[in-house]
From TrEMBL:
Ranges for domain Methyltransferase: 61-150
Keyword RNA-binding: no
Top EC class for this record: transferase
GO biological process, one term: methylation
A GO MF label: 2-polyprenyl-6-hydroxyphenol methylase activity
Protein name, UniProt field: Class I SAM-dependent methyltransferase
E.C. designation(s): 2.1.1.222, 2.1.1.64
Keyword annotations of the record: Methyltransferase, Transferase
Species, as recorded: Maribacter chungangensis
Length: 237
């Protein structure tokens, strides 16, 4: 993203200049709000899915797309060796200001990171793939970051419910959509808009098939009340 909308907003909040939230616009014709206080939530305010994921972390941890660093900060306080990764300069600056020790500014595909026991992708972190056709590239990159017996913990959502029902009782999905979980977003903050970017929501069956194709086992760990789930991926054999 050329404009660091997220990082600018996070820095404002951390520095006591909170006056508004981030507005998101999506290709699903939805306008929504991303409340900045939620991105700084303490462990007690985290949903059950996130608490479950944090409890399952082991060894060295890479928090991919760390944002304001709330998950990494909790893990660090519990004694974990955790590294934050985000391509937002502002997000990394906030993580540093909050006391997180190990930081890396850059993209998942390009950063020189080493290997880890746990790769953490929360808040639909697998969405960074953007489109389903890129999932093999992302999975192969994640595999290269895993130690033997390591794990990938990720959550996503099946967003089929967001599409309208047709006369036959099925869901109406536009014909030009390769996969219904591919969504295009724009973010706005203080009258500045980001460039449009793609984000991927994966239903569990699609995630499982893609993982299997890429030599990863896939285990469903938790299902929420609103189509969200937590999964664990690990190297086969």
């Amino acid at each position: 993203m050329e404009k660091d909308i997220l990082g600018t907003a996070l820095l404002d909040f951390h520095n006591g200049n909170y006056a508004e939230d981030i507005i998101t616009y999506s290709s699903l014709d939805e306008k929504d709000t991303l409340p900045l206080p939620y991105l700084f939530r303490a462990y007690a305010q985290m949903p059950e899915l996130e608490k479950k994921a944090l409890a399952l972390c082991k060894g060295t941890v890479l928090d991919i797309g760390c944002g304001a660093g709330s998950h990494a900060l909790y893990l660090q306080e519990q004694g974990f060796d955790v590294t934050c990764l985000d391509q937002s300069k502002g997000a990394i600056a906030v993580c540093k200001a909050r006391g997180i020790k190990n930081l890396h500014e850059g993209s998942l595909l390009e950063a020189d990171l080493g290997t880890f026991d746990t790769l953490l992708l929360l808040m639909n972190g697998i969405g960074i793939a953007g489109q389903l056709k890129h999932i093999d590239l992302v999975f192969n990159r994640l595999k290269s970051l895993l130690n033997q017996n390591g794990q990938i913990l990720l959550d996503s959502s099946d967003i089929m419910y967001m599409f309208e029902l047709d006369d036959d009782g099925g869901y109406w999905i536009p014909e030009d959509t390769p996969y219904y979980g591919e969504v295009r977003f724009t973010m706005e903050y203080k009258k500045q808009k980001s460039n449009e970017f793609s984000w991927l929501y994966l239903d569990f069956n699609t995630l499982q098939r893609a993982a299997d194709f890429n030599g990863l086992s896939c285990e469903l760990l938790f299902e929420g009340n609103h189509y969200e789930y937590l999964a664990r991926l690990s190297l086969k054999g």
